[in-house]
What we know:
single chain, alpha+beta, Hect, E3 ligase catalytic domain fold, four-stranded mixed sheet, three-stranded antiparallel sheet, 17 strands
Amino acid sequence: MLKARLRGGILNKVRRGEYRCPLPTGLVYDEAGNVTPDPDAQIRDTITHFFETFTRVGSACQTVKVFRKEGLNFPSRRVGGDTVFQPLTMSTAMRVLTSPRYAGAYVYGRRRYRRAADGQQKVQEKHDSSDWLACIPNAHPGYISWEQYQQNLKLLASNGRGYEMARGSPPREGAALLQGRAVCGQCGSHFRVRYRSTRGKQEAWYICDRAYRKLGDPDCQSIAGRPVDEAIGALVAERMTPAAVELALEIRREIEARQQEADQLRCRATERAQFEADLAQRRFMLVDPNNRLVADTLEAEWNDKLRLLAQTREERERARQQDQVLLDEAIRQRLVTMTTDFKKLWNDPTTPNRERKRLLAYVIEDATLIRQPLEGITRIQIRFRGGKTETLTVPNPKSSAQQVKTPRLVIQLVEMLLDNHIYSEIADILNKQGLRPGGSARPGRSNARFTALRVKYIVHQYVLRSRYDRLRDRGMLTIAEAATRLSVHEATVVTWAECGIIARHAYNAHAYLYELPETNLPAKHSSRWDRISDRAATFKICNKSKPEDPIKRGVV
Ligand SMILES: [Zn+2]
């Protein structure tokens, strides 16, 4: 009964936002019982810096990394009430980001405590603010606005590792520009980025493998990153010049401001150490020298504080030197020139990929990719911030098998040349025209040339009609047929052909087919006074009166 009435009283107070509950680090009750930011400037500044960093990098994990890199610690209130600074952890970052009190809201009942059957207390977290017993926005001063808080929650949710739903991801270090921003045109989920190293070069791939991971179905689509990224990069560099200057300037200002901020925080840490050392000294001075035991303890404490002070100072000096190196005059100059030209900033190889992606995030909402293998292209539909859309198409990169494939032009040429030439001649003609076999695309084979063997391979591989068949189609005879027709020995046919009495056509490097005149067949005839060379001459004169047959151009 009593408990219920007590509870009722608490709930009434809670609804009015008057019930005092423990505050997170960085907020305190003043004498009048109002919630105010901590009077300690170092605590306040660190928390402000934390929220600014999160807005800048867009993820809790990256914020923790930035704090670690800058050597900054985060305040944490101990049970006794004193505050210690310790390295920022992921859980602290999440707790601070999800706490509505930093947004100046009075809340109560975000968690439900229950005792289970085994006596263990169970805590159930309620994520929806409408389930809380009280949620009064703008009840007291905070570090961020209520809108900012809502936005942060949304960002955290979209960063969360949900495999099922389509989700973006905060910019990371990898080279794939559209990381977290590329949407599969087939199924609508976000692409994953995979990196693969081929011959020492790292290649990015956009892969939609959700179906595979969930059901073992084949991958939806995988798209090579390089052509897509190049097209996007070119588009962004071309389009965004006017707005870019502003943007680049802002980035520069941000870098400088961040360094100043970090230095200020370190300065505060030194001041605090100094203060504590002074305090320890005063305590030591005030103690009765006869009380040896206490004096010894206080002296040790004083020494500790002094050591801590020296350490903090040293750290600040080191960090400041590091910053100085970073903002060296030459670099400052480069930043200034860079700010005038977005294109340069974009194309500068020293610009980290993450910064480039952040620049891209200002410009592009997302890009939908559809690979169309039949046409050999990938279609990119870009949605700009502000609602404009644009479609780009890029050719798909050739697979290694396609790279070494003989070009269609060469095959057509071989097909044409086969009418009048043998393999070795075709190879010479192709080489003279500057054509190279497909295998020359392989690394270290750039000086490969066409040979008779390669031409033969092409003829067989692409099932071109052989030169032998072509000549036979034109009515050419084999040596046996010619010998029968002329009623002479095969050796005589060869002799006559060598002297030019009858025509012969090579169909490979050492084999011929024979072409006999329709009338006036040469007859076997042997005489001392009518030598074969003289007969050949008369034959040539007789045949000259006839128009030149185009087939004869190939006579060997
Ligand atoms: Zn897909």
